[in-house]
Write a structure and sequence with these properties.
41% of the residues lie in helices and 23% in strands. The chain contains 8 helices and 10 strands. The strands form 3 sheets. It has a 6-stranded mixed sheet with strand order 4-3-5-10-6-9, sandwiched between helices. Strands 1-2 form a two-stranded antiparallel ribbon. It has 270 residues and is α/β, with parallel strands linked by helices.
Length: 270
């Protein structure tokens, strides 16, 4: 018998009959009817050129000629089990994610319970901050950044969305600005143009900015997806920031990494 001519989908029937000792028991194991099991065994017999099973004392027993076929089926089953275990291992385990604090608190954390419920076995470590973690050195697995990477050109990068800004807070309120360390940011430059040199309150990140607006300390600009609950924009703003998802190219092959990356991309579309 040429193995390449055999229908490999018949092998589960062979294993099931060997274990159950009957077509009916095998059918119950496989979730099919007895006729289907009998047809698959008959097809194997035709390929083998000899009976696969013989009925002895009311039980179907493997014929000697089919012993090599059973060994082949068991090895194939074991290989599939090992492969399935390897795939399952890539679904579970740790994933470290870095992003600016505003994205973690305003976008990721509110959606995380639902995501973890749908992906048991994942362990998400969140690393907030503006520092660029070195992905190629393993400081983090996935990064969300507001600019395309320049320091690590080998990372796998894709643009997953755009942060669109609006003005929040009363129109007559004073402007809340970023501090000097953030002066190079596009949103900080726009605010500086609007507010002039003085501002009663300065902050260092969007999360603090949102809290300051909510506290009634003034007005400023925020990404619309990070605006405080129930707060509506008071004026438009031309500022936008691209959101980039970065990952070590080797980690991109792991299913758990792809699951987190796809989830983050979907969040940006909401």
């Amino acid at each position: 018998m040429e193995m390449r001519d055999m229908n490999w989908s018949d092998l589960p029937a062979l294993l099931a009959v060997e274990r159950a000792g009957s077509f009916s028991g095998a059918a119950a194991q496989l979730g099919v009817n007895e006729t289907t099991v009998a047809r698959r065994i008959a097809r194997l017999s035709d390929h083998l050129g000899a009976p696969v099973f013989a009925r002895i004392d009311g039980r179907l027993r493997l014929c000697d000629a089919a012993a090599p076929l059973l060994t082949c089926a068991m090895e194939a089953e074991a290989a599939i089990t090992r492969a399935s275990s390897s795939v399952a291992a890539t679904r579970h385990g740790p994933v470290s994610l870095t992003a600016v604090s505003a994205l973690i608190t305003g976008l990721i954390l509110p959606a995380l319970p639902e995501f973890l419920a749908a992906h048991p076995g994942l362990e998400i470590s969140l690393l907030p901050g503006a520092r660029d973690f070195a992905l190629m050195r393993g400081e983090a697995d996935i990064a969300l950044r507001l600019a395309r990477p320049r320091v690590e050109p080998d990372v796998k990068a894709r643009r997953i969305g755009v942060l669109r800004y609006s003005v929040y807070g009363p129109k007559a309120a004073p402007w809340i600005r970023y501090g000097p360390a953030q002066s190079a940011l596009p949103q900080a430059r726009w605010l500086a143009d609007q507010a002039g040199p003085s501002a009663p309150v300065r902050v260092t990140d969007a999360a603090s900015l949102s809290a300051a607006i909510s506290a009634g300390l003034g007005r400023s600009i925020l990404p619309d997806i990070l605006a405080p609950n129930g707060m509506q924009p008071s004026a438009p703003c031309p500022v936008t920031r691209d959101v980039w998802l970065l990952m070590h190219p080797d980690l991109a092959q792991l299913e758990r990494m792809r699951a987190v990356a796809d989830w983050l991309a979907a969040l940006m579309l909401k």
